Amino acid sequence: MNLIKVNNYEELSQKASEIIIKKIQDNPSFNLGLATGSTPEGMYRKLVEDHQNGGTSYKNVKTFNLDEYVGIPEDDPNSYHYFMNQHLLGHIDIEKSNTHIPNGNQMSDLQRECEEYEKLIDQSGGIDLQVLGLGVNGHVGFNEPGTPFESPTHIVELTQDTREANARFFNSLEEVPTHAVTMGISTIMKSKEIILLVSGAQKAHALSRLLNGEITEECPVTVLGKHPNVTIIADRAALGEE
Ligand code: F6R
Q1: Which atom in ligand 1 lies closest to the alpha carbon of residue 132?
Q2: For 186-203, what is the mean pLDDT?
Q3: Residue nearest to atom 9 of ligand 1 (CA)
Q4: What is the CATH number that goes with domain 2-235?
Q5: Three-state helix/strand/coil letters over 113-152
Q6: pTM of the model
Q7: How many DSSP H helices and E strands does the chain contain?
């Protein structure tokens, strides 16, 4: 694993955006795996600025998001569809048909939706670079502690910890969905390359388990220790240096 230490969130966002821009400039038909949440927001802002001022084109890029809540309409401000549109996809020249986010509203057959999503990624040639954030409890995507490492895209019941952590975006904890669709650990591990973005002291424990601990399903992010091409971008607070 390659660890890039940065001083703060601003530098993390800058570094992550530089890596992605370079990849897309080198290979305009790139398959990019994306995450939502607070951590990548700064990186998305910089990608948008670069697109508007520097002209990097996403015409032939395909994106695949990690996850989506179950039962929240796509146009609801708390859906990950909405988030992606607001922070990145609505501001770059990507073809809508090349953007993929699991459909958490396929209520009649969510299991089938999961299988189709997995197939879609494979048939598109796989993900060239997957961006990940890190949950306080060590989750990646919505793969909560205890998720088998072999899991493909699946439906997950969110833990109380995760619902509480995400309640800041909702009016109340009760409004936070109980389930989500997420790429599985095996889906994430099939990506050719991974960058993990970690910012803030509240992530320090989970990050230290990846950097120093054993590889265990009890802390999902530790699986990255088995991947051949991982870059971690972490700020001083996440590294426990503040
Ligand atoms: C989001 C996702 C989650 C987040 C994680 C950290 O698509 O997959 O694993 O990356 O919960 O969230 P933030 O960045 O809000 O701390």
Answers
A1: 10
A2: 98
A3: 141
A4: 3.40.50.1360
A5: HHHHHHHHHHHCCCCCEEEECCCCCCCECCECCCCCCCCC
A6: 0.97
A7: 7, 10
